[in-house]
Amino acid sequence: MRRILSIFKALILSSWRSPTVIFWNIFFPIILLLILASIFTNIGKGVSVKVALVNESTTFKNTKMDFAEYISEALTGMTQATGGKTPILTLETGVTQNFLSESLEKLKTGKINAVIVIPPLFNTQVYTTIIQQNGGFKLFSKPSVQIYTLENSQTSDVAFTVLSSVLEAFNGEFLKNSGHLADLVSPKMEYVSKSGNDFSYIDFLVPGILIMAVMTVSLFGITDDLLVQREKKVLRKLFVAPLNKSEYFWAMILSNLVIEIIQIFILLAIGFWIGARLNFNAWAILYIVLAIATTLPLGFFIASFAKSADSGNALANIFNFLFMFLGGLFFPISGVPFAIKIVAYALPTTYLGNGLRAAMGIMSSPTPSYLNVLVPLLWAIVMGVYSAKVFKWEV
Amino acid sequence: MKESILEVENLKKYYGDVKAVDEISFKVLKGEVFTLLGPNGAGKTTTLEILEGLKDYDDGKITLFGEKVQKKVSRHLRERIGVVLQENNFIDHLTTYETLKMFRSLYSKGLDVRGVLKEVSLEDKMNGKVEKLSGGQRQRLAIGTALIGDPEMIFMDEPTTGLDPQARRNVWEMVEQLRNKGKTIFLTTHYMEEAEFLSNYIYVMDHGKIIAKGSPEELISSFGGEKIIEIDADLKSFNLELFKSEFQKVTIEDSKIMIVTSSLPSDMKKVLDLFEQSSVLVNDIIVRQPNLEDVFINLTGKKLRD
């Protein structure tokens, strides 16, 4: 154990001080994540939110006391583009219960970002509240509008802020005109959970980047630790000292594992920052562990049949690209030709991606979840056993 | 009688048809510098690799520190030896100090890291990265890693190959100091002067076999009273067959002819006669005592460094 730890320390220190290792393992995945995210989504552009207004108000229609209409007009005003900018709001309006349920359905699938509902007696409620202020009866409850937003959605949160500001402006007007003390209308917030197959690209991308990053460390880390060090005769130097091969092996696994864990935390932080949905639970962790457990033997596998450090590096590159793009890590493979699909469904990354995305609640897996665990596991075992038999330490 | 620390009997290691080590036997006594001398490809490194625990052997018997080595030299025996390889590389981006510290932690017991750094004169480089060390400094660090476990026996595989004369001297001094401390040293080299300068005992190896053994003096005196005539001449237009038929022990290389002679006056006369008959330009003719190089040429018919 002492020997494993001291080799581990040396390998980690060496990686940490190596500009190429840091670049490819830490910065490259971040850069790739940001580039893909900014190309295929509109982060950084002016935010535009889609809102459905359900105006159920029935009293005082078309009178000066149609307060609901004031809110509706204020929102419509925000759909106008000013000065060439994108308008803040896209609005759909309706009055029926049917429209409400349709809108809520759209909200769940992310097609719109918020639903604002003005209740049937809204105008009456506002009116009586004003009268009450002047000593009237307490017949009706305080008026409120209901705002539905999507749980864990940043755009939905933005929509809520926009709508709240409209209500605040509404309250402000009344405050000025009537000397009213408290807020007249308060927003009632309600969350709606996501459903269906719709997801934002960033949500799709982050789990893919996580798996890619883990794979990159495993493939290049292991081939480097085994092939480059063998070729440079560093292993030879270590093995004439009282160090056994298995001790070096585990120190190497441990050092790559630690780099992978650091990398996962950094990528999660970046993912959080750019607004990806990161529902990280025990199942998600299991798939990350499975990704590590699958890619480390893959690195060992490459090392065991590459003749030299150079060919090992080339092979690691080929495998990395193959698994990255055909494994559906960055783009869904649903649209690819049949022949490629067959390859994709043989690769462990396809299943790891499906499994991780399902675990994180981003999309339901197109493959059954037992296969998502079984296929990567099978790869891990086959490659691990094969490599352990075939790898030539040949120091 | 000194105690023997390593005994090898009929050691054999074949790679297919290649007889890398072909049933060699030798004994290394405690506190001496033992040298395996031979040209590249003679089987020195393979022998060493077996003794260092890097390779297993096909047949024979190895007894190290009084213990029979089964298949490979195991960890507890490696705790007691130090190794300087032919090519010593270390994990990149670590400092000299960190590297030595790591090696120290691989041994159950050993010396103080700073003390060893001082011993191999790398104190001023202790915070320098290993990949920035010069060839000589790298070799000294390799010696440091061999010493850090306070071994009883140190193996050095061609420790001065590729070093400049100054660095070579440095390594020689270190070997002498180690011998003075009572360490046993097992050396391989293809440098004659190195073997002659450092060794108590030399085994000459070629084609996987031991072809001669003895102390440097013994090996040289195996020539008896023979002398060497060395001729430097422009031999392009010269019929070399004449020389080959006239003398028994003669080697010719480029513009050099070397003749081993036991009757100097008559052989010298023959040489002069041969040159007189031709019109070859003779640059130099010297007569000298034989050295280890001559012993080797005499034994194998080829030069060591080939």
From TrEMBL, chain B:
One GO molecular-function entry: ATP hydrolysis activity
Q: Where in the cell is it found?
A: Cell membrane
List the Pfam families: ABC_tran
Q: Which GO terms describe its cellular component?
A: plasma membrane
Sorted alphabetically, the keyword list is:
ATP-binding, Cell membrane, Membrane, Nucleotide-binding, Translocase, Transport
Query: What's the main place this protein lives?
Result: membrane
Keyword Translocase applies: yes
Q: Which residues form the ABC transporter domain?
A: 6-232
This chain's protein is named ABC transporter ATP-binding protein
Q: Which organism is it from?
A: Mesoaciditoga lauensis
